[in-house]
User: Which sequence fits this backbone?
């Protein structure tokens, strides 16, 4: 960021994050986790380190990680097609660009497969499975 930008105390970073991390964090699986465990400020989600640190990441091979990275890059590439649009504009459910929507759906399908979810799994089922995985990790 340029020097005139002043970050607030709510700024979070993930050191050494890769496109793989971006892909998982922008997937519908992670967003289901966010909706279940994230705090709120008014109606907005308040992401915190505990949301990230307690998220049960999938076990992925290097090849699977590379696939997720390609799909994550496709999302970034789709965003670049609209340089004058804000993220709020791009993610407006009524006017989301079809190419960006397709990129997200393709990524979501790959992340669901990585977790072993069926394509017609519901959000409550995703959250229940993630909680089971979290429980297993927390008990170690």
Assistant:
């Amino acid at each position: 960021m340029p020097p005139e930008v002043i970050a607030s105390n709510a700024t979070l970073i993930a050191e050494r994050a890769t496109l793989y991390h971006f892909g998982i964090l922008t997937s519908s699986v992670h967003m289901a986790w966010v909706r279940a465990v994230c705090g709120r400020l008014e109606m907005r989600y308040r992401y915190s380190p505990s949301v990230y640190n307690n998220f049960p990441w999938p076990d992925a091979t290097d090849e699977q990680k590379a696939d997720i990275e390609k799909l994550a890059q496709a999302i970034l590439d789709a965003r670049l097609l609209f340089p004058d649009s804000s993220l709020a504009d791009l993610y407006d459910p009524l006017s989301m660009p079809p190419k960006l929507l397709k990129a997200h759906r393709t990524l979501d399908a790959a992340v669901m497969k990585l977790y072993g979810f069926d394509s017609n799994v519901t959000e409550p089922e995703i959250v229940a499975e993630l909680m089971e995985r979290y429980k297993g990790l927390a008990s170690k």
